[in-house]
Every structure is written in C-alpha cells, then in structure tokens.
C-alpha cells in the first residue's frame, strides 16, 4: 500500500512522460517523448540579433507541422502550445498554415532531457517558441463579437485612478483590471482581447487569467500588461487595442490597428466599411479610409461604431 501511494506521489510531481495532444473533440492523445527521438531528425538554423551581431543557432528535431498533419487528428481552427510553467502560444489556422514549426530535441549539439523538448518557429521571434512543451491543444474557433462601441483608449484611462505600486507589483504605476474592467462589461466572465503595437494579439479571460492584472503606465505613456496569473513571457507591451466583450478601447494615434485585429478575430466586415463617429455635439458617418488618412477626424471623438 505504501509503495502504491509513493508511486502516485512521484507520478504527480514528475514531468509528463509524453506530449499530450488534445484534438478539437476533446480527446487526448499521448505521444511518449521517446517517440520523437526515434524519428529521423532534420537539422535547421535560426538567427537573432544580439548586441549588434547576428547569432546563428543550429538545432535538430522533427518538422512538427508536417508530423501533426500525418496524425490525422481532425480539423481545428486554433492550435495552442503549453509548457509546464503555463506559458502559452497560440495561432489561428490561417496563421498556422503559413508557418514552419519544429519540435527540437537537440540544440548546438546538446541533447535536451526528454521532457524538455522545444517548439521552435525559425521565422518568428523566440517569444513565440515554447520550452519544455507538455501539451498541444487543437480547438474550434471561439468567436469574439464585434464591439458595439470603440472608445479612445487614452481618454478612458484619463478617468481611471493611476495606482502607485499596485499589488503584487512594485516600482511601477498602473491601472488595476479589477478597478476598471466592470466599466466595460458586466458579464461575470469576460472575454478580453489585447493587441500590441508590434502586432501581437492575445485572447484572455477575466478573472481567469487576468485577476490581479495591471496595465503598467510607462514614463513614455505606453501601457504594458502584467498579470500574476500568467508567465512574464506572455506579458504584452505597448498595447494599442483592448477589448472587453462588447466594448473596445483603441489607440486613436494608431487607429489602423483595427484592420489586423479584424483579420485576426475573423470579423466579417464589408469592403466599404464605414464608421459612425460620435462627437460631443454631432454624429457623422465616415469611411474607414478617410478616418485613417485624416487623423484629425479622431480629435474630440467620444466613440465610434462600425456600420454594416
């Protein structure tokens, strides 16, 4: 009996012995790490800039995108990679189909421990890579609704209290999600979309992944996400779009962000998209192209709506 209990405890605290892939029907498939070492490896290289110099790294592993297709695990709209320390990277199907993905077991001649395989995208920055990958999830697309109202991000936070050292964070000033998120949605569980100026997008949930989270206000005026619920590598910098259910905050100095956000969230918008622009004393309907070409049209804007 003692031996059985000890075995169960060891199993709980030990790393997984297999990569678990959950298909879009919720069925989990286990692939022992040994399996990937037995497949004929491919050598590939990645490059990065470090202190003004280009550093080339050489890896060995399997073409994971090709291997996954061969497993015939069914259709999916989103693929998500998760590490043992809760780091997540996900792509929609359109993005995934354009990527080259490797599951690496060797780097610079060093063979990794079997439970520390890495997902590497040679043509993406390393923040998209996943060390010690444990799980892959193939999911159906969760539709994120088109916001009913788009408000200027800077104006919204001008009405919020800027906190000094908001717990659990120190040596920073920021806005607590717990304080402002109810003004954007009264749903108990909220879908949150965050898009950064450098083109990264995340769909998160509140309170799940964002309880206790903070938007740090930098000296330059940028907003950076920090959350105790997710690893630091997933924190986003210089946020230009933040959607909470049916309302969105948009950086009017970077209003063109609306185009990549709409594409990433698969909104079905008309090619002749128009905006219903609400000012303090009037409302005007304008074409998106005109608004983007004339930033002055966004001055004194209270909010805008998308016109079907």
Please characterize this protein's 3D structure:
The protein has helices at residues 2-13, 33-38, 64-70, 93-96, 153-158, 177-180, 258-264, 288-293; strands at residues 18-22, 28-32, 42-50, 53-63, 78-83, 88-92, 102-107, 110-111, 118-120, 133-139, 149-152, 163-164, 173-176, 190-196, 201-206, 214-217, 223-226, 239-244, 247-250, 274-278, 283-287, 303-307. It is α+β, with helices and mostly antiparallel strands and 308 residues long. The protein folds into 2 domains: 2-139, Oxidoreductase, molybdopterin-binding domain (Sulfite Oxidase, Chain A, domain 2); 149-307, no CATH class. The longest helix has 12 residues, at 2-13. The radius of gyration is 22 Å and the shape is globular. Residues 1-14 have low confidence and may be disordered.
Quaternary form: single chain
Number of strands: 22
Order of strands, main sheet, comes to: 2-1-10-5-6
How is the biggest beta sheet arranged? 5 strands, mixed
Number of domains: 2
Which regions are unreliable across 5 or more consecutive residues at pLDDT < 50?
A: 1-14
- What amount of the residues lies in strands? 35-45%
Q: Which bin fits the share of residues in helices? A: 10-25%
Secondary-structure class: alpha+beta
Q: What is the alpha-carbon Rg in Å?
A: 22 Å
Mean pLDDT, nearest integer?
Answer: 90
Report how far apart the termini are.
Answer: 67 Å
Q: What is the 3D form? A: globular
**N to C succession of SSEs:** HEEHEEHEEHEEEEEHEEHEEEEEEHEEHE
In DSSP terms, counting alpha (H) and pi (I) runs of 4 or more, how many helices?
8
